[in-house]
Structures are given as C-alpha cells and as structure tokens.
Amino acid sequence: MSSKISFIVIDAKKYILADLAAIRSGYPFRGALAEVHSGGVPVVQMKDIDPALGVEWGGVLRAELTGRKEPDWLHADDVLFAPRGQRFFAACVSPPPAPAVCGPHLMHLRVRPRSGLVPAFLAWQMNQPPVQKQLHVAAEGTNQLSVRMAEIEALSLALPAVEHQLRIVALAEAAVRERQVLSRLILNREQELAAIAGELAQAAGIDQA
User: Fold this and answer.
1) Tens digit of pLDDT for each residue in 25-70?
2) Which of 2, 1, 12 is nearest to 163 (CA)?
3) Are residues 84 and 51 in the same domain?
4) pLDDT tens by residue, 159-206
5) Is 46 among the domain residues?
6) Is residue 144 located within the same domain as residue 197?
7) Count of alpha carbons within 13 Å of 182, Cβ hemisphere only?
8) Most buried in the list 18, 130, 148, 189, measured by CB within 10 Å?
C-alpha cells in the first residue's frame, strides 16, 4: 500500500453544473413518509447515503408513492446530493435492487449524455473543498443550512479529460479501501490492548465486574 500519490492534471475546463447534468428534487410524498412491510418501493433518504460507499440499500425504507407526480426512478450512476444540514454531500448510485426513488430532501442528478462527465467524478468533486466552499457561501438558514436548487445548478466544476476523471475516481476508491483496512487494523489493535488490560487486572486480582 503506497503512501505517495503522483498525479498531474494536464488540463481542465470550467463548466456550470446545470450544463452537465439534469437536476431535480426527490419524490414529493404527501405528509410523513410511512414504511410498508409488503409492496411499496425503496425510498432513499439521507441516512442511507455514504459519500464514500454510495447507497446502503440494505437499510432503505419501502413506502407507497402517494403523490401524483410520475416517479423519477433511480438509475445506476445517478448522483444523489444532500442539500441541507451542516454537511452537504453527494454519492453515486449503485444499481438499485428494485425500482426506487429518492426522498424529497435529496436532489437527484443525472449526467447528460455526451457531456463528457463521469458520474462518479461528479460525486467526488461535489464533496471536495472547492465545491463545498461554493455551497457554504450559497447556503441559507440559521438552525439548519440549506442550498436552493438555483445555487446547485450554478455550481462551477472543473472538468478534465475523461481519462483523468477515471484515474481520479480510481484514486478515490483506493483511498476508501485503504481507510477501511486501517480502520480494521486500529480496531484489532484496540481489542488486543483491551485484552492485555483485562489480563493485567486479573493477574493483580482487580475486580472487573
């Protein structure tokens, strides 16, 4: 596992997000979202999204579509964006296990055909400091920050060639894997140290109840 990353961006052009992707709000449910245990469709909410891992489909709630709007079904490689809270983040959608929608508190982005934008690169860049700074400058609210649709559409993106986008995505995915390995190593070490502490206490006759 190398600790050194060497990457040179040869060229990148500035684009506005709305020119590269269609942006729409999530499905407009009437009233509170009610779970159903049979039937219904999966409804992705903010709690189901991890910026690094994407949608965690195993915990997604199923609900009846109560609105009159025709659903905008989620497709693999769509991007979901959380536009409210203290942390704005985006994630690329893995293939849904069944026809699914996202909830009304999420933005649903779909890269335009022939735009030259890789969806996973879009999600990655939206989570990076240059775009995050734009989002926080545009954010409104006191108790809970939120970004309006128009501000999201107006985000400035730096778009390199597709081959560079794919390489950056690969580096980001490698970083996720490295973080997971390190987390497991840290947990194993902490468990080892806890076991040693328990053995010391037992040897000294210290009550551990």
Assistant:
1) 999 888 788 888 888 899 999 999 998 889 999 999 999 988 677 8
2) 12
3) yes
4) 999 999 999 999 998 988 898 899 999 999 999 999 999 888 888 889
5) yes
6) no
7) 8
8) 18
Structure tokens at 121: 């690169």
Enter the pTM of the model. Answer: 0.84
- Residue 7 domain-assigned? no
108 and 17 within one domain = yes
SS (H, E, C) the chain: CCCCCCCCCCCEEEEEHHHHEEEEECCCCCCCCCECCCCCEEEECHHHEECCCEECHHHCEEECCCCCCCCCCCCCCCEEEECECCCCEEEECCCCCCCCEECCCCEEEEECCCCCCCHHHHHHHHCCHHHHHHHHHHCECCCCCECCHHHHHCCEEEEECHHHHHHHHHHHHHHHHHHHHHHHHHHHHHHHHHHHHHHHHHHCCCCCC
- Residue 209 in domain: yes
Query: Token digits for 186?
Result: 């840290």
Q: Which two tokens stand for residue 70?
A: 């025709």
